[in-house]
Known about the structure:
mainly alpha
Amino acid sequence: MGEPLHNIDNVIKAADIMVDEQGLQFSPRKVTISTSGLVPQLKRFLHESNCALAVSLNATTDEVNFLLLYCYLLVYHP
């Protein structure tokens, strides 16, 4: 469907509606925006929204993908 943070204004509005007490009343901990990462928009989203953010890490080679996975496991599952 594309990169959500290319449409940052509407993503923030939609997230706000989902968690607003006059909107859908979801808990901000239950709303996660998934992105591949546009740094300026990442910073803006984190500053303006209290919803979660998931960032996909991808690489062009299997070797780099393995390195990313290894680093993740090393940090979060020592």
